[in-house]
């Protein structure tokens, strides 16, 4: 039995899928969306929204326990984790309803529950029912990747999903992986009073950020009581009483770590299993991700792909943009292209990290002859007023043209400040132009201007706003 023909069939029900469905519906297409679980995907259900909701709550608890202003006394009682999780669940349910479920009726596309697989290059089946369409968009997202560590499967380890639904806050946690997800969830438990060890295989935490940011964040986490272990290769995992134990090699030496819980945060894998993409002639890269070009086209001219299941960066805003482009190109063949020249990224630690563009090492590798400016926050008036000078701003510029090619921030408000740098890189601004642009005083945004001035002058010897 074949379900009626559609102009576009979308496999998946998350951010990229909904963006594609909305775009296609606005173009007047007949759209079907196939989703095997609940609508909304990773971001609203188990990723961005729930994790940041808990992170923000934990941060407020931490700030109450450590007042920073003279004359203001605050105190923090024991956190009510159950109430925090319940509030998170309520927020997630409301946003899933308002931003996903309700939109199906608004835009009038069809949602088909079930698991899809390709029968061939131009047809899928959903739980045994054939479904035909002129074009397809695959937007099935990604799931947590668990490394093949001996003994790990015997542990009740946590992932980024299960960590958000624990029954209580663990006394101690080993976080395996200290990039964005591991750092954020480690910070969550650290702020709630857990003893946290970050265990990273690479030589530094936040390994894809500038080394100055990694060093500053390491020092900050250690002042909060965290243990940071880098360059560690985990060789074995097993139970230790009611908890867990890990063995790791560091420069030939074996260390053993024990904790109540182990949280595995070592990246994500694409959800392609069961799609039978070989039947459709859709090529994958060595990591199992769907290969797409900048029009979101795959190796099958009838199939496009978008979001985290592809070779694109794993950010929800990239997923949404790629979904729009995939739908438009699939239906209209306009060849619209995705521009990844200025994609920001934010890690919601406290303080957060925000970056866009090239690192100094990347700029050097492309023979741009970069010049850099590094600004400490103790010369930023906003940071001084806030009594919090943890962090820095690093700008990377092309040595010939002076154009900004990279911006890297560790500071409160970094995720908001970075947008100015995104626009600067996107439209070719020079650091002199940024330095000559008005930035409001007593905001963290002023740090961007001060860092830009730092290419040509000593900003430690300037009066306010000079």
Features of the shown structure:
Enolase-like, domain 1; 7-stranded mixed sheet; FAD/NAD(P)-binding domain; 466 residues; alpha/beta; 21 strands; 5-stranded antiparallel sheet
Distance between the termini: 74 Å
Q: In terms of per-residue confidence, which ranges show pLDDT below 50 for 5 or more consecutive residues?
A: none
How many beta-strand runs?
A: 21
Which class of the largest domain in CATH terms?
A: Alpha Beta
User: Major β-sheet, in short?
Assistant: 7 strands, mixed
**Domain tally:** 3
Structural class, from secondary structure content? alpha/beta
Proportion of β residues?
15-25%
The name of the CATH superfamily of the largest domain reads: FAD/NAD(P)-binding domain
Radius of gyration from CA coordinates: 24 Å
SS summary, helix count: 13
**Approximately how much helix is present in the residues?**
25-40%
CATH topology of the largest domain: FAD/NAD(P)-binding domain
Task: Specify the overall morphology.
Answer: globular
Using the 3D structure, state the CATH architecture of the largest domain. Answer: 3-Layer(bba) Sandwich
User: How confident overall, as mean pLDDT?
Assistant: 95
Structural account:
It is a single chain. By secondary structure, this protein is an alpha/beta fold. It folds into three domains: 207 residues, FAD/NAD(P)-binding domain (3-Layer(bba) Sandwich); 115 residues, FAD/NAD(P)-binding domain (3-Layer(bba) Sandwich), CATH 3.50.50.60; 114 residues, 2-Layer Sandwich (Enolase-like, domain 1), CATH 3.30.390.30. 31% of the residues lie in helices and 25% in strands. The strands form five sheets. Strands 1, 2, 3, 4, 5, 6 and 16 form a seven-stranded mixed beta sheet that branches. A five-stranded antiparallel beta sheet has the order 17-18-21-20-19, sandwiched between helices. A four-stranded parallel beta sheet has the order 10-9-8-14. α1 packs parallel to α8 and α3 packs antiparallel against α4. It is globular, with a radius of gyration of 24 Å. It starts with a strand and ends in a 13-residue tail after the last helix. The model has no long low-confidence stretch (mean pLDDT 95).
């Amino acid at each position: 039995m074949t379900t009626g023909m559609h102009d576009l069939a979308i496999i998946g029900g998350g951010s990229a899928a909904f963006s594609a469905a909305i775009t296609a519906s606005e173009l007047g297409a007949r759209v079907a969306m196939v989703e095997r679980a609940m609508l909304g995907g990773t971001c609203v259900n188990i990723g961005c929204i729930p994790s940041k909701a808990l992170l923000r709550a934990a941060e407020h608890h931490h700030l109450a326990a450590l007042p920073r202003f003279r004359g203001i006394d605050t105190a923090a009682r024991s956190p009510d984790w159950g109430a925090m999780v319940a509030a998170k669940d309520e927020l997630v349910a409301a946003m899933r309803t308002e931003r996903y479920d309700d939109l199906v009726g608004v835009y009038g596309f069809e949602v088909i529950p079930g698991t899809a697989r390709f029968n061939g290059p131009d047809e899928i089946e959903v739980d045994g029912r054939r479904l035909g369409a002129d074009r397809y968009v695959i937007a099935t997202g990604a799931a947590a990747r668990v490394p093949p560590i001996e003994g790990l499967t015997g542990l009740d380890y946590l992932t980024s999903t299960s960590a958000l639904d624990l029954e209580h806050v663990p006394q101690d946690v080993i976080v395996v992986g200290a990039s964005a997800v591991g750092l954020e969830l480690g910070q969550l438990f650290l702020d709630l009073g857990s003893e946290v060890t970050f265990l990273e295989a690479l030589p530094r935490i936040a390994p894809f950020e500038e080394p100055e940011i990694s060093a500053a964040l390491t020092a900050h986490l250690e002042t909060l009581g965290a243990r940071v272990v880098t360059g560690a290769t985990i060789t074995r995992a097993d139970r230790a009483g009611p908890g867990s134990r890990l063995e790791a090699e560091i420069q030939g030496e074996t260390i053993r770590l024990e904790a109540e819980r182990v949280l595995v945060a070592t990246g994500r894998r694409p959800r392609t299993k069961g799609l039978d993409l070989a039947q459709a002639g859709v090529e994958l890269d060595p990591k199992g991700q769907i290969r797409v070009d900048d029009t979101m086209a795959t190796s099958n001219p009838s199939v496009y792909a978008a979001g985290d299941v592809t070779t694109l960066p794993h950010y929800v805003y990239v997923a949404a943009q790629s979904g729009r482009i995939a739908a438009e190109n699939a239906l209209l063949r306009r060849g619209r292209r995705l521009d990844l020249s200025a994609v920001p990224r934010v890690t919601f630690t406290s303080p957060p990290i925000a970056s866009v563009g090239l690192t100094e090492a990347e700029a050097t590798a492309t023979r741009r002859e970069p010049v850099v400016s590094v600004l400490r926050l103790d010369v930023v008036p906003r940071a001084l007023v806030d009594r919090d000078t943890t962090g820095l701003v690093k700008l990377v510029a092309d040595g010939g043209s002076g154009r900004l090619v990279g911006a890297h921030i560790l500071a409160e408000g970094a995720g908001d400040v970075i947008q100015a740098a995104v626009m600067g890189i996107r439209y070719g601004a020079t650091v002199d132009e940024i330095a000559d642009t008005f930035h409001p005083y007593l905001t963290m945004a002023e740090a961007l201007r001060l860092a830009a001035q730092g290419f040509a002058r000593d900003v430690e010897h300037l009066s306010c706003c000079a």
